[in-house]
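Class, discuss our next protein.
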Amino acid sequence: MRTFCTIITSNYFPYAATLYQSLIKFYPNETLQVLVCDDGSLNPDPVKYPGITITRLNVLYDYGITDSIFNKYAANPDALRWSMKPVFMSYLLERGFEKVIFADCDIFFFADCGFLFNDLGHSAILLTLHRTNIDPNVNEEGFVSFFMFGMFNAGFAGASRKGIPALQWWAKACLFKNEINFPSGIYKDQKYLDALPVLFDDVKVIEHRGCNIAFWNQQECERTLVNGQLLINKKYPVVFIHFTRKYIPELLEGHDSLILPYFREYEKCFNETGYQLSGFISQLPEYKKPGPLLSLKRKLRIRTRIKNWLFRLSQK
């Protein structure tokens, strides 16, 4: 038995509902386990989404190290949610599910993803690389970010029951520290994932380049139209896209233009929950199709913005 899961605060339930809608397009009976880390009411009504199961954080207080995580991070909602990721996954695996895939609530599926669960049939853990260009002579920012933020993206992870020990280790690491601390080599819950292939067997890195498409992999995962179909590196169809709060404004400003139709599908599905995506992302720009000069200017500006962003983070 398998399932997907995500973790939210109550006001982000429209995101979870949108993620769920993308899943059932391919598997009408697919389920999504949603851990809600506060006591707020959920809108729209979860009853409208029969495959979604809501779990409140207090249900897990007696499971594993949940109480310790809550006591440490109750005043820091982000660290609380991030730290509960491996705890919630292992909780589901120990209560009947054989395979669990975690997806950030701002992920949206565009194709059949059954092969991911097939991979978990012979793997303990599934991870996705950031796939940033790390040639220091070509992409200095990508090279630095690879070591600052980690090889793998923590917005997506899969586990089978064989992966429970790895999840438990990840949870203990998050309890130790869940923060941005570059001198100590710590970046939230994410940097700890670098250790999993070293410490545990059967950790698989997903090779399919159509998985976890995002702003950070535009160079290494080239978007190309082949006979009218968008393929990554002229080979891989789009499976799921990570529509982060940073990525969406860039799409609307004309960057990564081949992804824009996919964003429009995502936005339409989100708005069908009764809540507008624009209400969750402040100063969402109108779409602007860039000309050649503006495209060049924006490429240069992106490089400068990334440098400044990395510098600011390093100073925290």
The mean pLDDT is 91. The first helix runs from residue 13 to 24. The chain is about 35% helix and 20% strand.
